[in-house]
């Protein structure tokens, strides 16, 4: 199954050094499940960050030589059309650009391919040219979808962790650089309204109004304690256990 | 008859042994080339054997009492006989008396060896051919001794003499025949190993504990198969005498993790030969993971199909207790690191939890993904200048990983307070201090280590200082012993030594912390790796503390379990290493365990339940300063340490 | 008291305008004079089928003729609104009530959901369950065309996020994804690895980041049911089969589960503990001491050195609450603690704290739960 993984412009949150996105590294691990020699595809001026993908399981890396400010959509679409991959994997949102997560969907629209989101596992289907994709759903549920190939699949963070990095294979991996001609079909990304990011705190997870001792029971009987616990679980919508015998 | 034949029996034995060891020699030659000073090695052999090896053997008195007459008798007797053969001394009766004496000594040694094995052998010894070996020794010794005795007193009983000679020949050849795969191999390979040892610097009182840099442009990184080992490493595996001292000292083995250094070395010796995996008669790996057992010079060693399970490899804390105990001078830790290097760098086969710090190193030069510039945040209220490029200081304080950890910060805060009180001119690198790379290197990620080392060496080159001070023995070891290979040679001092200097100089008033019983836990990377066991004790004594020693202390101290990436690899065992060590500390009755390493502090503080308090020596020192400041001036005296 | 069951099929039938042709046509809305461009919402034909306002809350907030509409797509797994769903509804409410207000929030769900009114929904629009996002997107697009909402809000997770993108492609409109700050005039999202941000007037399509916008907490809304004029059904030729596999709490990873029951030093009967976890339908966890002792596998360890949880609820049995352990449950909204020590840190942290021997409470809980299954 000829597979490629789209690699974006991730940077390390602490050092700001270019690096491979963790989600895309997870995508590589999935790709390696169905393809012995998966490749990666990156659009950018250099491969400083994404070269690590070769140490995480890719055997080759295709780089479309594009400025970071150029919208890579048309160049990627053209390359993917030429290469005819069976499977194109990507993270839910590419990193380092506008991070809208729309690119895989745009590519799907241009290439006329089906797209599935949030894969945590992929296996070849029973029939040829099919793929079984497990999608992550809430509360640990999975949706197992059999899809006809070729297709685009995005990967969920709950997919298995990336394969540990190995320096040797990275050194031996193939890097193919592809010039992209014609700025005619490449629109520049809009950078006009950008401003420095301001860190905003997230909402607190702890439920409010939990003053110490507000809900404290000292030495209740075990039965009473059990009833209190189940009542609390049901009242807060954690679980529902149906009618209990001694209510 | 004896005079004619006994020397020739020795010649026959040497021939058989030669043929046998020749088989191994051919194997050794298939290892990787290694630079060896043959002449120097050969010249140094007697001294290495009689001084360095004996020094280790002697730690087990019973073993020394056994080995000196046994090996001495055998070598002397065979030596005499060969000399006799060449010089014609065999006609002289006194000569035979000498030979008889030598064999008598050998008999005594063999008897002692039998005592170690019967009725029950010591737990750390191996069975199998090792168990029957002393009988071959004693048969040869008695038969040859009797023959020599006959020769001493003339040809009295020719029939009996013939019988003893035949017995001597059979026993001798049986002994010599074990030179390839059996117990006698240790003598020949062991002697060879002493000549071609990969770390000749460690003999004659020297020390050589730094890991050697790996050529990152090499075809293959690290060791996959026996053939990837340097040839003199293959010799080392064959030198193993399976005495099990390494196993008895191994903290991972004690905690029930699947590692026994002895088993590992035996496996490696077996792996290079190929064919059927020979039986192993020592203790199995604790909670042994099943492996396929496929061996061969070119077969992968560490894998589910090979001989060594990955969990065995990742259980090691690199504490060097095995190396310290090994009478054959085998370098177990080098071997484990070589194997890890291949697993990490070529296969990416590293425990997932251990990959996290490595990923963080690649991302931001810090194992927990912290911001380097925040390393000094804990010292906000303290006097801790950050040195700029081109700046100058007397003492450069290397903060290390501890600066990001609450427990480590307590130690560092105490240390900085002391230095401020003593008016020591200190500064730190600030954001230019990257992790020293110890963890990356021990986990086999040499590429990351070399990158960090080069960056740190460059940062250190941009400032001027007299010496580096650190409270982290791991950083100390790397900076002092491993950075020279990357162009950085520094005088690095551990805070225990530095504080001992301060106390000795009497520059700070100290009030004795009398009446407090403590025990000192030696950090592996300070004691065994760097031989510094005196200064911390001098310091603790200077603080007036009542010091109790644990059964295992100094260079033979047991590890806390925190080194070599073992905590991140987290291979399950029956218990945890720090729990074992803390129990040993509690046994002394001391109420406080004094530590000198942030890893040790973290590991030992992680022990739950009733236990002694864990204090870094810097914290104790600060207590003594503060106690002095509280007391009336006349009661204060500057404590002095006797000159060492 | 049980609510009358809705019958979407019958409701749809009642709106059939009986047009000729192969496709059935439904008419649900008529233009309302005076409010150009905003189609009004017609109450469902059979009022008896709608969710009844609860009599206990008379201050029900009713928007009869919304000035405009804001769609909020909710996932509500198991028919219950998640915290994130409430935040999406809260954001929709915020946009609907801005300025003159008077707008209506339409919750869009794929199955019936409790508590939508309390969470701020004026109207409820149900798609039939278990349709693939591609199919739902088509139906949603038709609904958007028909009702012209001013905003459509999504949660930046799961099928909602998927749907948001499919709708953006279908409408050829921009999507402001993963918004982390929202007011009626401005929506802000981070870009370039969090180095920069973009602020914009809230566009039509917005997906929200988690824990960014407060849920709605004022007077309950009506949550009047709307019927849908198209029933989505999977017709994508590339999708060959779909199978739903429910999550099994017992085998879930700690990082993924919503409910963890965890054992510490105060638990000695681990067979009973595992049994209890099964009956509570919770994922079993443990403190470090328990894992060190080999009583539970290492993978079950909760805390800074084990797994850091994102579960909604943490039930600690006999765990005193070492700092490292508490770091691991910092993200848990609800904490229940059973411990013999009144002064344990875990008792302090808990929303329900019971000072009692965990070994005694476990059998009592089991008995209660077993009884409940009959």
What would a concise description of this structure say?
The complex is a heterotrimer of chains A (247), B (644) and C (374). Chain A is of the alpha/beta class and 247 residues long.
Characterize the structure shown.
Chain B: The chain crosses the membrane at residues 6-22, 68-88, 94-112, 133-153. Chain B: It comes from Jiella flava. Chain B: GO terms for molecular function: 4 iron, 4 sulfur cluster binding; metal ion binding; oxidoreductase activity. The complex is a heterotrimer of chains A (247), B (644) and C (374). Chain A is α/β, with parallel strands linked by helices. Chain A folds into 2 domains: 3-179, HUPs (Rossmann fold, 3-Layer(aba) Sandwich); 206-247, no CATH class. Chain A is 21% helix and 26% strand. Chain A is built from 5 helices and 11 strands; from the N terminus they run E-H-E-E-H-E-H-E-E-E-E-H-E-E-E-H. Chain A has helices at 22-34, 73-83, 103-111, 167-172, 222-235, and strands at 3-7, 39-44, 60-65, 87-91, 115-124, 130-136, 142-148, 151-155, 174-179, 194-196, 216-218. Chain A has a 9-stranded mixed β-sheet with strand order 7-6-5-8-4-1-2-3-9, sandwiched between helices. In chain A, a hairpin with a 5-residue loop joins strand 6 and strand 7. The longest helix of chain A is centred in the last third of the chain and has 14 residues, at 222-235. With 644 residues, chain B is mainly α. Chain B is 51% helix and 5% strand. Chain B contains 25 helices and 8 strands. In chain B, strand 1 (392-398), helix 16 and strand 2 (426-427) form a beta-alpha-beta unit. Chain C is elongated, with a radius of gyration of 24 Å. Chain C has 2 domains: 8-226, HUPs (Rossmann fold, 3-Layer(aba) Sandwich), CATH 3.40.50; 249-373, Rossmann fold (3-Layer(aba) Sandwich), CATH 3.40.50. Chain C has helices at residues 8-14, 83-96, 133-147, 158-171, 270-280, 288-292, 323-328, 345-349, 358-373; strands spanning 69-73, 104-109, 123-126, 151-155, 175-182, 187-191, 196-200, 205-208, 224-226, 239-245, 259-263, 283-286, 313-317, 334-339, 352-355. The longest helix of chain C is centred in the C-terminal third of the chain and has 16 residues, at 358-373. At the B-C interface, loops of B face loops of C. Strand 11 (216-218) of chain A pairs parallel with strand 15 of chain C.
